Structures are given as structure tokens and as C-alpha cells.
């Protein structure tokens, strides 16, 4: 069965520091991978997606992610975090057979000034 | 282009009652996903409607049901409400060309007391 693991429940970084959020997936075929962000009490906003091609994908708000097939990973990065980046981040894999998104448990990002 | 709209924003019900949640997808999109986001349980896939038909269902009891109307809007009904049904219910509107890329609404916060 498809699954997504986000090993870090909480991460705290200083404003201006770099960020990496980890995501590992389990999927039998070529994965369709996504990162979403959720601010408190809000819906999910798509940050970036990977379908094929270049394994380094750029997203909105200065985020990028790198697909590594050998490690079954799709980690999210940002070179310099802003206080407004504090939110919960979800990694997801597209299950083409079930036609649904399977989400990880999420990582809560705290930014300290 | 209007995004995914959900109503109501908040809903408070008593245990045993029924709740009805509504969703309008992005104009031109014919599918709707429903997800439950309960505290500590992440995003759980509930239902997928496409072209008026239920196409897939998550691991939820039959008291979770819904329908999709000819204009592609959707309704989620939860009967015999239980306390553990308290959650944020998110509706998503997947793209037509790649069904697993989805745009999310702001959600309905259901509280069962």
C-alpha cells in the first residue's frame, strides 16, 4: 500500500536559517509527489509537485524539493526561512490507482526570531 | 477563477445528530475529494466523486456518505454523529488532466458535543 512518512513531527528553526523537511514514500510505480502547506485553521496550499523530469523542482514562496528515487525521498528545502513560513507542512503521494492523495502525518514548523 | 468553496465554515452538532457539509469545486473541474483531518490523525481520505458517481471510498463507516450534483458541487453527510467525528473536513478539486493534483478548500470545522 502507498504510504508517506514524515519523520519529524516538529521542527524549530531560527529566522534566516535554512530548512529541510524530510519525506519518504512507499509506492510501487513512478510516484507523483507533492508538498502542501497549511496555516492554522486553513485549507492546504500546494507548494510544489513532481511528476517527472528534473528531480529538483521549484515551488512557490522560495521552496524547492529534490526527488531521490534511490532513497525514496522527496525532501523540502528553503535556504532562508521567514517568520511567515511557520505552518504545518504535508508531503503527499498521488495514488493513481485509487485516484487519491495519500498524505504524511505532517511536520509543524516553528520559526524563532 | 474562484477556488474551492466550502460551507459552512464552522458547524456544531450534538452527538447522534446529522451533519451536512457542502463543497463547490473549481469551475470546470468535475471531481471532488473529501478528506477528514482529525487532531493527531492527519489527513484521511474519505470519498471521491467524479461525474456524479462515487468512485472510491476510504476506510470509514457507512454513516459517512455523500453525493455529487449535476453542477459538480458535492455534499458530505455524516449521520449518527459521534464525538470522534469532530474534525476539519476538507474538500479538494483535482485537475482533470492529472487527477491527483488537487486544490483544497478552507474546510469545515465540525465539532460534536
Q: What does this molecule look like?
A:
- The complex is a heterodimer of chains A (113) and B (113).
- Chain A has 113 residues and is an all-beta fold.
- Chain A has no helices and twelve strands.
- Chain A has strands spanning 3-5, 10-14, 19-21, 24-26, 32-38, 44-50, 56-58, 64-68, 73-78, 87-95, 100-103, 107-112.
- In chain A, the strands form three sheets. In chain A, strands 2, 5, 6, 10, 11 and 12 form a six-stranded mixed beta sheet that branches. Chain A has a four-stranded antiparallel beta sheet with strand order 3-9-8-7, with no helix packed on it.
- In chain A, a hairpin with a 5-residue loop joins strand 5 (32-38) and strand 6.
- Chain A is globular.
- Chain B has strands spanning 5-7, 10-13, 19-24, 31-38, 42-50, 53-57, 64-68, 74-78, 87-94, 102-104, 108-112.
- In chain B, the strands form two sheets. In chain B, strands 2, 4, 5, 6, 9, 10 and 11 form a seven-stranded mixed beta sheet that branches. A four-stranded antiparallel beta sheet of chain B has the order 1-3-8-7, with no helix packed on it.
- In chain B, 37% of the residues are buried.
- Chain B has 113 residues and is mostly beta strands.
- The radius of gyration of chain B is 13 Å and the shape is globular.
- Chain B starts with a strand and ends with a strand.
- Chain B has no helices and eleven strands.
- The mean pLDDT of chain B is 93.
- The interface between A and B is medium-sized, with 24 and 27 residues.
Explain briefly what this protein structure is.
The complex is a heterodimer of chains A (113) and B (113). Chain A is mainly β and 113 residues long. Chain A has no helices and twelve strands.
Amino acid at each position: 500500500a502507498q504510504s508517506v512518512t514524515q519523520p519529524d513531527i516538529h521542527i524549530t528553526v531560527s529566522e534566516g536559517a535554512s530548512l529541510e523537511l524530510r519525506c519518504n514514500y512507499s509506492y510501487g510505480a513512478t510516484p507523483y509527489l507533492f508538498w502542501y502547506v497549511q496555516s492554522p485553521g486553513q485549507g492546504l496550499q500546494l507548494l510544489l509537485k513532481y511528476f517527472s523530469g528534473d528531480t529538483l523542482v521549484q515551488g512557490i514562496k522560495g521552496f524547492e524539493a529534490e526527488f531521490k528515487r534511490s532513497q525514496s525521498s522527496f525532501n523540502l528545502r528553503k535556504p532562508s526561512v521567514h517568520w511567515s513560513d511557520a505552518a504545518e507542512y504535508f508531503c503527499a503521494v498521488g495514488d493513481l490507482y485509487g485516484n487519491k492523495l495519500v498524505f504524511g502525518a505532517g511536520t509543524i514548523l516553528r520559526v524563532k526570531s | 477563477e474562484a477556488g474551492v468553496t466550502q460551507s459552512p465554515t464552522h458547524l456544531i452538532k450534538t452527538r447522534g445528530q446529522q451533519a451536512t457539509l457542502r463543497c463547490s469545486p473549481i469551475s470546470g473541474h468535475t471531481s471532488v475529494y473529501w478528506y477528514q483531518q482529525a487532531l493527531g490523525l492527519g489527513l484521511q481520505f474519505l470519498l471521491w466523486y467524479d461525474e456524479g458517481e462515487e468512485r472510491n471510498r476510504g476506510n470509514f463507516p457507512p454513516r459517512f456518505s455523500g453525493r455529487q450534483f449535476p453542477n459538480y458541487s458535492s455534499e458530505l453527510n455524516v449521520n449518527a454523529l459521534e464525538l470522534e467525528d469532530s474534525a476539519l473536513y476538507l474538500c479538494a478539486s483535482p485537475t482533470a488532466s492529472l487527477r491527483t493534483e488537487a486544490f483544497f478548500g478552507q474546510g469545515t470545522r465540525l465539532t460534536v458535543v
